[in-house]
From TrEMBL:
Organism domain of life: Bacteria
GO process annotations (BP): methylation
Species name: Pseudoduganella flava
Entry keywords, A to Z: Methyltransferase, Transferase
GO MF: histone methyltransferase activity; protein-arginine N-methyltransferase activity
Protein name, entry field: Methyltransferase domain-containing protein
InterPro entries, alphabetized: Arg_MeTrfase, Methyltransf_25, SAM-dependent_MTases_sf
Any one Pfam family match given in the protein's UniProt record, by short name: Methyltransf_25
UniProt domain Methyltransferase: residue ranges: 48-137
Length: 305
């Protein structure tokens, strides 16, 4: 009999299909950014732990420099897949693939770096925040400090009002949409600039729930009928170049239950609340927007020469 958390894990992402992990291998932005960050952080002689290893590719990147890599996954299908792939690649023998729950596992020895990519847009569905926070407590109890370096090191999350097209060959369907960053998206109109609503620093204690109320100045006339969620993962800080190695998740656009007509200059108030690792519908149920300030209703100031 599965526990409540195990049932939720099956639903929310810990047992995502194998082919989903194959798609991640084909995501060149993700692969390039993680490879560069791991090469920067992992130094020769280090010991590395990956929580939620999937195909084992990130552990393999680490094994190119580390002495030992522990790769943990709770899905037995992925454990088998990772072992199969790592056996095909040089240096894969330095990776020990372990079938275990990331919520409970501790390595047999202290490690220098912890890689964890249980990341969904807005930190929904997957358990990145909760897994890392619990790991830090267990690790300090077992080994004391200091904590390992975490990869990613931090996460920035932002929200942005949109006017989103929901016409599909004449069929109206306001659905959740995921969009590739850095591309033009016909049917998507940005109604204001994004605003950051949370910054997660994995070196510090982090809350596992978010409640936000923010204001946006509307840039153009139209209708706000969706809120875009943006998640930027700071994989590694490159101090010597005063820069970072980043990975931007796909944008997630959530339709509003009640679209809001707006004019340029209006101030839109957006509210939402959810917990890290929760479902997308749980965020949608507590997502709302309203016009706080109508620019057209304010008295005009007339300047006299």
């Amino acid at each position: 009999m599965l526990s409540e958390r195990e049932l939720e894990s099956c639903y929310l992402g810990q047992f995502i299909p194998v082919h989903y992990h194959h798609n991640m291998l084909m995501d060149t932005n993700r692969m390039h950014s993680f490879r560069a960050a791991i090469a920067h952080v992992v130094q020769p002689g280090m010991k590395v732990l990956e929580l939620g290893g999937g195909t084992g590719v990130l552990s393999w990147f680490a094994a190119q420099r580390a002495d030992k890599v522990y790769c943990v996954d709770f899905n037995p299908d992925m454990v088998q897949e990772a072992r199969r792939f790592l056996a095909m690649n040089p240096g894969g023998d330095k990776v020990e693939v372990i079938h275990a729950d990331a919520f409970e596992y501790l390595p047999p020895e202290p490690v220098d770096v912890v890689i964890c990519e249980m990341i969904h847009v807005a930190m929904l569905r997957e358990k990145q925040v909760e897994v890392i926070e619990q790991f830090k407590r267990r690790y300090l109890q077992r080994f004391g400090g200091p904590l390992p370096v975490f990869l990613p090191e931090a996460v920035l999350m932002a929200a942005q009002p949109l006017q989103q097209e929901y016409d599909f060959e004449g069929f109206y369907a306001p659905i959740v949409q995921f969009q590739q960053p850095g591309m033009l998206h016909p049917g998507t109109v940005e109604m204001s600039q994004p605003a950051v609503y949370s910054v997660i620093d994995f070196t510090q204690p982090n809350e596992t729930s978010y409640s936000w109320e923010g204001k946006f100045v509307i840039d153009r006339d139209g209708t706000v009928n969706a809120i875009r969620f943006v998640t930027k993962n700071i994989l590694s800080v490159v101090q010597e170049r005063a820069t970072t190695i980043d990975w931007l998740n796909h944008f997630m656009s959530l339709p509003l239950d009640k679209p809001v007509p707006v004019k340029q200059g209006d101030v839109l108030q957006v509210r939402f609340a959810y917990r890290a690792g929760g479902s997308i519908p749980s965020l949608q149920a507590r997502l709302s927007a309203s016009v706080l300030y109508h620019a057209a209703l304010q008295p005009q100031v007339v300047a006299y020469a």
